[in-house]
Amino acid sequence: MWRLIKALVFLTALAAIGLIGYAYIGPIFFPGDFSPPRIQVTEPVTLDLE
């Protein structure tokens, strides 16, 4: 049982390191995945001035 818990902790730590690495290094190698969508949105606004 202890081996299973140890393996799960190791895999969780490895996944966390991978996610952090992707967050920091990802924009360098995959800039399209991290760029925001470029869509202009215009909506009319009605102000109640009473």
The gross shape turns out to be elongated
Radius of gyration: 22 Å
**Kindly, what is the distance between the CA atoms of the first and last residues, rounded to a whole number of angstroms?**
70 Å
Indicate the proportion of strand residues: under 5%
Structural class, please? mainly alpha
- What's the tally of helices? 2
Largest sheet: none
Oligomer: single chain
Beta strand count: 0
Task: Please give the structural blueprint.
Elements: H1 2-29, H2 31-34
Question: How would you describe this protein?
Answer:
This protein is mainly α. Helices cover 64% and strands 0% of the residues. It has two helices and no strands. The radius of gyration is 22 Å and the shape is elongated. It starts with a helix and ends in a 16-residue tail after the last helix. The mean pLDDT is 90.
Compose a concise summary of this entry.
This protein is mostly helical.
Q: Main traits of this protein?
A:
single chain, 50 residues, mainly alpha
